[in-house]
Write a structure and sequence with these properties.
By secondary structure, this protein is mainly β. It has one domain: Immunoglobulin-like. The strands form three sheets. The protein has a five-stranded antiparallel β-sheet with strand order 1-2-9-6-7. The radius of gyration is 14 Å and the shape is globular.
């Protein structure tokens, strides 16, 4: 339902030194219509041109400081409110490649009243300069 709003391509940027980026970051919104505790976010799979990047390369920051996906499993006191952008940070040598590429994000969410995980997916074509 809200999948088309998950990735904000206008916020894509490289991180680290300008001449030797060590990763990239972008803003994301929750694809579920209510906020969730971070411990209920099972996966955030980031991909570039269809290649899923390693889980341990991804960090998440809803405004209270970046944490790994493993740390999110026990972040019972932190929430991602609906409609609030959070930063997805990815460690990747060279950062995001220049030119036209596809940026993808899959959110695997554990919703209390669903007997199965909710998968929310977005892909954006970006021309990164």
């Amino acid at each position: 339902m809200f999948d088309k709003y998950i990735i904000d391509p206008a916020t894509l940027r490289n991180t680290g030194p300008a001449d030797a980026p060590t990763g990239f970051a972008f803003e994301s919104k929750l694809g579920y219509y209510r906020g969730l505790g971070l411990s209920m976010i099972e996966e955030l799979n980031v991909s570039v041109d269809g290649e899923t990047l390693p889980r341990d390369a991804v960090r998440f920051d809803e405004g209270n400081g970046p944490i790994s996906l493993d740390e999110m499993e026990t972040a019972f006191d932190r929430r991602w409110p609906f409609g609030t952008p959070a930063t997805i940070l990815v460690s990747r040598e060279g950062g995001f490649p220049k030119g036209a590429h596809t940026l993808g994000l899959v959110q695997k969410l554990r919703v209390s009243y669903l007997p199965f995980p909710s998968f929310n997916t977005d892909e954006k074509q970006v021309d990164f300069a």
